[in-house]
Amino acid sequence: MTAQTTLAQYLESHATPELASIMTTLATASVAISHLLDKGALAGIHGEAGGQNVQGEAQKKLDVISNDLLLNALIHNPNCAGVASEELDEISPANDDGTLLVTFDPLDGSSNIDINMTVGTIFSILPYHNQGQKACESDFLQKGENQLGAGYFIYGTSTMLAVTFGAGVAMFSFDPMTQTYILINDNVRISEQTAEYAINASNRRYWLPPIQQYIEELVQGDTGIRQKDYNTRWVAAMIADVHRILIRGGVFMYPYDTKIAGKAGKLRLMYEANPMSFVIEQAGGASTDGVERIMDIAPTAIHQRIPVVLGAKEEVDYVKALHETAGILANGDRV
Ligand code: F6P
């Protein structure tokens, strides 16, 4: 039997000591979150916390608990200069001499908690250059291209971690016996082609023409221009849909829609779209807002929303081509 590689061993050879230290902190917090999820209703974590996050969404009890666990752990890590979270209105400065910033969505897909379905923690690690000064929001507003590390912990039928430091994607499975993450794949790859797509089709009438056309072509299957049948899957937790794509391929979309005026899509650039784009690209996939590569977009605000199309390269390129032909920008403006 070959020896198993633990996360700690993997980090020794694949990450700087600073990145390894942040990853260890994130992994420790993820184990605490995973244990709470295991206890479920018995831990008193189901239901609403009573407040709203900055997006105006009702906060679940476990959203708040997970956020506090991650925040408290990270601000005590000397390498962490600051933290930004989906659940915090403002960024939280940490250690002035730290070299890394961390953004996270503590519990993506939290509407799944009460129904005992998959949720997860998404994280992105950025460089911090202003040592000696307190980190502020503008320090975080870096392109996804600058990310030094990113990934997610998924709490499903088992707890897993997918992570990239810019040289491929590694996947780990949490072993409840030894309480450690064990490497199961050190080079996750996704196929350029797929016949499976994920989108919330109930928003159809609010989509822009290129997305309407794209989905219409997929629904026509082998009777239409794409000449093959497509299957659809939607978990309503980006983390689970992206994880499925990493395991068996596919394309995931939360495109721009006109449902709520002024909202350019639903997903957040800094702690959902960027980290997932980094993982997907490092596994051989692609990621766009419909027009631009997501990791090339200069952020303007920590809670900025962005349309997302990611996964199998061939499909992502096809969606981009449809936007180009229609002369439509990702935010619905005409070129
Ligand atoms: O963070 C937003 C999110 O929960 C994503 O994880 C998920 O893909 C999406 O919202 C689900 O949206 P909808 O409720 O429209 O299906």
From TrEMBL:
Keyword check for Aminoacyl-tRNA synthetase: no
Domain of life: Bacteria
Recorded GO CC terms: cytosol
Domain Fructose-1-6-bisphosphatase class 1 C-terminal: 190-323
Pathway: Carbohydrate biosynthesis
Protein name: Fructose-1,6-bisphosphatase class 1
Species the sequence originates in: Moraxella caprae
Catalytic activity: beta-D-fructose 1,6-bisphosphate + H2O = beta-D-fructose 6-phosphate + phosphate
Listed PANTHER family: FRUCTOSE-1,6-BISPHOSPHATASE-RELATED, SEDOHEPTULOSE-1,7-BISPHOSPHATASE, CHLOROPLASTIC
Family statement: Belongs to the FBPase class 1 family.
E.C. number: 3.1.3.11
Keywords: Carbohydrate metabolism, Cytoplasm, Hydrolase, Magnesium, Membrane, Metal-binding, Transmembrane, Transmembrane helix
GO BP term, pick one: fructose 6-phosphate metabolic process
Cofactor binding mode and count: Binds 2 magnesium ions per subunit.
InterPro entries the UniProt entry points to: FBPase_C_dom (IPR044015), FBPase_class-1 (IPR000146), FBPase_N (IPR033391), FBPtase (IPR028343)
Known cofactor(s): Mg(2+)
Domain Fructose-1-6-bisphosphatase class I N-terminal, residue spans: 10-185
Compartment(s): Cytoplasm
Gene that encodes it: fbp_1
